[in-house]
Amino acid sequence: MTENEILELDIQKNIIKHIDNFKSFRFNAGAGAGKTYSLIEALRYVAINKMANKENSQKVVCITYTNVAVNEIKNRLGNSDTIYISTIHERLWEIIKRAQPQLLICHQEKIKETIEKNKINLFKPNKDNFFVRLKEKQQEFINFIEEEKELYYKNKDYDAKKFRESYQTYIGENRPIFLDEALSNIRDFKYVSNLILNNQKLEICLEKIEKGEEKYVNYDSEINSDILHRMKFSHDTLLEYGLKLIETYPTLCRIIIDSYPYFFIDEYQDTNPNVIKFINVINNYAIENKRNWMVGYFGDVAQCIYDDGVGENIIEIHNKLENINKDLNRRSHTQIINIANNIRDDEIIQKPFLETRDKGSVIFFHGDFEDKLLIAKEFLAEYKNDLINTNSEEVPKLHCLVLTNELMAKFNGFGDVYKEYKESAIYFENLNTQVLSQQLEKLHPTVLHIYYFVKLYQDIQNGIASYYDIFGVSSENVTFAKASLLIRKLRNIKIISLKEWLDFIIKELNNHHIKDILKLVLINYIHYQVDKVNSSDIFESTLLDDINILINKNNENEDKTKEKIESFLSLPISSLIKWVNFIDGVETEDIIYHTYHGTKGEEYTNVAIILEHSFGKRNKDKFKKYFSFIQKNDDERKKLLDCPDFKTKHINTKNLLYVACSRAIKNLRILYLDDISEIENGIKQIFGEVKPWTTKTTTD
User: Fold this and answer.
1) Per-residue pLDDT tens for 280-332?
2) What are the residues whose beta carbons fall under 8 Å from the beta carbon of 525, sequence distance 6 or more?
3) Strands, DSSP E only, in 286-359?
4) Residues forming beta bridges with residue 296, ordered by sequence position
């Protein structure tokens, strides 16, 4: 047994010792250290040695960040009746959902807080806000909007021109004389109307709760924002309610301790602070009441790259933890590990698990270029050729990390698709989730419909999908002859744009020979209700209405809205298929492009990183500031870190660079596409030698 094998075994024994003694701990290990392996071994130990002979209903809880991670742990661990593996939201809801009387109180308080916030926003002084200017007529406007709410809901998704016309033609008795003035700015009108009607719904709901007509409140995992008046709440509010309950009702702590004596949290650094606070309350209760309970956190503070993750703040929130560090790296060669150590610059200084892993290479190139996209492609082509020349067995895969979703989409060949979504009504901060998430349930509903619609064309053309894939549960009721007729017809067409695909489907929904089974396919793929595909007109209007709502940004010009719909429908089917492949994680090229955030938890033999001063328009000079900080002296650094805002941004940049570089197993190339003259010393402290990039630069 090697020295590193003995060291790794000792670390695992230390974890087991903490489990045996019910000592809560934090297992902190760098990239490639085998955190998931250590977690699974800990779970196996508990299942076999602590839970196997339990006659009661006690279970082990393992919480991780995503459904993908849940499935990975389940697959590696195997079936277990004693271990619950889930996301925090799923498990927390299972724990608290029976406490309905207490949840109802939380929900009431949340509704009251929301009503007050809405009132503050409604009456906020603003010279451009028509509602504030109404002064003594404000109540009259509120009454009008509440009484004619059907008029608002019927027209709220239309563009500005059509929305305004719907109110200008209204001739009801309670029409305010100042209505035309209020309609001068449709965006403000809709904003104010929303606040008024939301408060009306909330006040009605509050009254029902107080009368005992509403008794149950539910967490809905499929919504991204609360629907409080329907007694539903979303992810963040679930964490908020859970923390409030555990802090208010100590009995809940005892119930959790008795039911789940062992808690394990994977990727703790990405966990919401409210979850850590929740766990800390339980841990404190267990210590104070001498109850057997423990939590084991597995993760790495240097890999916290999400804004809502607890990161290194876990030390302040949950301070009664013992640290177990692991400085072995099973993934990368020494050359990669050294760079990663330079970036993280903390007590975790990794070394390779296998001493023979010292054949890697890291080269940093730089240059100030006008056509950055062209230079990046040239750089990648030469890197790829270099790999081919040194790898005679097979064409190597090259994974390229870029900073922004927009650049990633361009490189992957669906930049036009991303552009259309970016200009839609989806908020910028939601684009990554609602347009690019590989967890389909997180995609925007309309985006998901378009994904399935394109997926249908792709599956038919590829000829790989089975009849069951295409027809779903209805396949048993479809004759082979009819199914073959439809599939042949769909496969024989060649289309260029999304509109051509839509037009073809509309045409075939009027074909009495295949329309019935085509409806079954559409229902199976797009998951529309039966009534929405009953006719070609209904299907067309439903999909177009979805797209209209998606792209509508209160355009004053109706022609502009129509133009944007046409632009969306003219998207090439080839680009849309590349977008679908990205969502599905299908790699069809030798060079695969990712964002830095999108590679979390992944590893690749050959990695290229494209760096620039700025990370999009919202993070100007993000990396320039980071390298500038690195080259300063200790006193200057300390002074800068005394500013909380600077410290938060600096740590985020450092972690992002660490995650990107540590994905590489053997070969890493970095291309910095801006002038580095002011920050060259900082870059050299991390990467060592830097080379100017020129065409056909060699790497020998």
Assistant:
1) 999 999 999 999 999 999 999 999 998 889 999 999 999 989 999 999 999 99
2) 452, 453, 455, 456, 470
3) 294-299, 322-326, 328-329, 351-352
4) 25, 264
